[in-house]
C-alpha cells in the first residue's frame, strides 16, 4: 500500500492554476524528507495490512458466494499476504518511471473543456498517489508530450495557463498534438494558446487538426514566425476542415518535412507545396487534379493510397502529366463515381499492387459514366500487369448483373 499524499495533489493542482508555475518547482528540504519517507514501509503499515487481510478473510467465510468466486477471492488474499512486503518503493526511479509509462501508454492530457474531470485519465491520478510518484512524473517530459486541445465556446482564460504548464513539463521531447474544435471564435485567449503551441512546432512528431480554417491558418502562420524549421520532425499529419476555399489549405507550411510518413487530409491539390517524398500512407478525402500520375510522382515511396473523391479543380493552368511506374504502392482504396476525372489513371503503372478496395458500386449511382471510370481503372490494372491478392468491391449490385459479371471476370 502507498499512502496518498494530499499535499502533493494540492501542489500539482496549484501549479496548474498558477501563472507563476511555468516550470517544475524544486522540493523544499521538508518536502524532500516526506518524499524519502515514501520509499520504504513503516513498521506499522505491514501490521495494519495483515489485520485488514484477516478481517476480509473472516468476512469472506460469512458470505454466501459461489464456490468459484470464493476460491478466487481467497487466492487473491493469499497473493496479497505473500506480497505484503513487495519492494516497489525501493525500485530505482528509472525502473519506476518505465512502469508508470506502461500504465499511461497513449494517454493524452486533455487541455480544454472538462480539464478538472478528464485531464489525463491516468497521468494526473498517478501523481496524486504519493509525492515520490509525483516527482517522477512531473520531472519526466514524456508524460507531458501528448496534448489534446478540445475547446467549446467560449475559450476559458485558464486554458493558456494550463497549456504553458504542460508545455514546460514536456521539455524538449517530441510532441503529439491534437486540436479538436469547430465554430470557435479566434479571440485573444485562443490566439494566446495557439501562439504557445506554435512556438513548439519544431518539436511536433504528430499533428492532428480537426479545426476551423481560420484557426488552422493562424497556427500555421505563427509556426513559421516563431520557429526556424517548423514541422521538421513531423511523422504523422492529419488536417480535416469543412471549408473548401479557392486557396490551398496547406500554404507553404509543409515544404520541408523530411520525416513525414503518414498524411490524412480532407482536401489536397496537385499543385499544393508539401513534401511527400518519404510518405508511405496517403488518405485524401477530396483530390483536385487531372491525373493521379502527378500525385504519385511526388510520393515515390508510397505504399497505401486512399482517395474518396476527385475533380479537376479550379486551377485552369495546364499541368504536364508524367509517365509513372510506381513500384512501391501495394494498397489502393477509392470510391467509384461519375464525378471522377476522365483519364485520371492515364500514364500510371502499379506493377506491385496487391490489394484493391473499391466502394460506391451501387445500382442507384453506378451509371454509364461511373462504369466508364471503372473501365479506366481496369485498363490501368491490366496495363500494370499486377497480381491482386485481395479485391473488395463494395456496393449493392446484383451478382447476376452485367456490370458485376464484368467485374468478376476481370479478376
UniProtKB/TrEMBL annotation:
SUPFAM superfamilies: RNI-like. InterPro entries: LRR_dom_sf. This is F-box domain-containing protein.
